[in-house]
Amino acid sequence: MQDLEKYILRIADSSLILSHRLSEWCSKGPTLEEDIAISNISLDLLGRANSLLEYCSKVNGNKSADDLAFKRDEREFYNFQICELENGHFGDTIIRQFLFDSYASLFFKKLSESKDETLSAIALKSIKEINYHLRHSSNWVIRLGDGTKLSKEKIQDSLNKIWKYTGEFFEMDELDNEMLKKQIGLDNKELKNQWDIIINETLEKAKLNRPKDGFMMTGSKKGIHTELLGKILSEMQYIPRAYPDAKW
Amino acid sequence: MQNGNIDKIWNILESVPDPEIPVISVVELGVIRKVEFFENNYIISVTPTYSGCPALKTFQDDIKAQLRENNIHNFHLEIVYKPAWTTDWMTSKTKQKLKDYGISPPEKTIECPQCNSTNIELISEFGATACKSMHKCVDCLEPFEHFKCI
User: Fold this and answer.
1) How far apart (Å, rounded) are the C-alpha atoms in residues A27 and A244?
2) Which residues of chain B are within 8 Å of residue A124 when distances are taken between CB atoms?
3) Per-residue pLDDT of chain B (150 residues; tens, 9 = 90+)
4) A40, B126 Cβ separation under 8 angstroms
């Protein structure tokens, strides 16, 4: 696999898997408005994943975007582990979304300066949508954190539980360094300062405590995942695998 | 014809309605960025409104069908992402059409499309389609959709 291909897959997979997770809320949202909101965000992520996988398919030359989404196994997926976590209760979903949105808003802003024109164009398009998502997830963090005793307890608990999945956002490996050198990719470590600012400001408004950085999960850059990804793939890939020639 | 008849293509495109908001055309929506004639082929550049907008596929199919109905077969649709679509590309005439249809157009100050009041409440930042949010007029109590500014 070419370097560029793998780099695109990493970005695409996080969008795709998180989109699939959010789609599980469809028809089960806590209110009709939130059901629609989460489904909308899921659709934006799916659209972004599609644009990226289409581009990856062009770089690859042999596999279609659908092949890439539906015919890869667990170890060939490179999404952040945070994206595959279960939806849990609404607070868990909101915290996962807030941590991811705040990171994504910075990542795509920087990616829009990429020398790779397609990546830069997709990033520019994505930023507008991500900022909207971030406003939505931050508002909920504040509302639930600064809400009732129970809502505060529950969302602080979600934050403590999911925190260890945020370390992956800022990792750099050989491929990242290679892409950075070619000015296609970016320095993930550089995003950390600004991310801290967004997180701290929102948590302060929400009267929540920032968890201490302790043990951080890692591995997705090498295709190592929690046991949850396999379950997502078996659901997501079932139809195209069972009926390989099906058209829809 | 060496240069093709680009005006004719634009005219045909103007007759393709937006699948979700049929009072405006895909041209008025601003998603048709360019029509060119190159090596005997019309190249039509189309940009998505929102990345995941389900109407994207539908309006591409509608455009193709409408061109073929007008006996144009030598064309190719190209998806472009840059510059990213913005509601600033909508003309005031298009915005008026949205308002007449009951959708508050993409303006900084949101007005009730029924009674023009600016005394409104947000119901949800996300509506039935990615491009709209939901509001309620405090004066006439009518709920309505607003086409978001992006």
Assistant:
1) 28
2) 81-84
3) 556 899 999 999 999 999 888 999 999 999 999 999 999 999 999 998 888 888 888 989 999 999 999 999 999 999 888 888 999 999 999 999 999 999 999 988 899 999 999 999 999 888 888 888 999 999 999 999 999 888
4) yes
Two tokens, residue A235:
């659901």
Q: Are B103 and B145 in contact (CB under 8 A)?
A: yes
Whether the CB of B84 is below 8 Å from some CB of chain A: the reply is yes
Instruction: Report d(CA A55, CA A4) in Å as an integer.
Output: 10
Within 89-128 of B, beta carbons closer than 8 Å to A belong to 123-128
ipTM: 0.82
Whether domain B6-85 has CATH 3.30.300.130: the reply is yes
Q: CB distance A124–B83 less than 8 Å? A: yes
A3-242: which CATH topology? Answer: Ferritin (1.20.1260)
Candidate from B50, B52, B124 with C-beta closest to A37: B124
> Could you tell me the two tokens for B59?
């309006």
Contact A82, A162 (CB under 8 A): yes
Report chain A residues whose CB lies below 8 A from the CB of B51: 44, 47-48, 50-51, 125-126, 129
Write down the domain spans for chain B: 6-85, 89-147
* Cβ-contact B136, B108 below 8 angstroms: no
Predicted confidence (pLDDT) per residue in A206-219, tens digit:
999 999 999 999 99
Residue type, B48: P
CB atoms within 10 A of CB B30: 18
- Mind listing the pLDDT tens digit for each residue in A135-162? 999 999 999 999 999 999 999 999 999 9
CA dist., res. B23 & res. A177, Å (int): 50
| Neighboring chain A residues of B48 at a CB cutoff of 8 Å | 47, 125
Q: Other CB atoms closer than 10 Å to residue A112's CB: what's the count?
A: 18
User: CB-based contacts of A150: which residues, under 8 Å, 6+ apart?
Assistant: none
Compare CB distances from B52 to A37, A43, A132 and report the shortest one's residue.
A43
Nearest to B48 by CA among B90, B78, B8: B78
Length of chain B measured in residues:
150
| Structural domain spans, chain A | 3-242
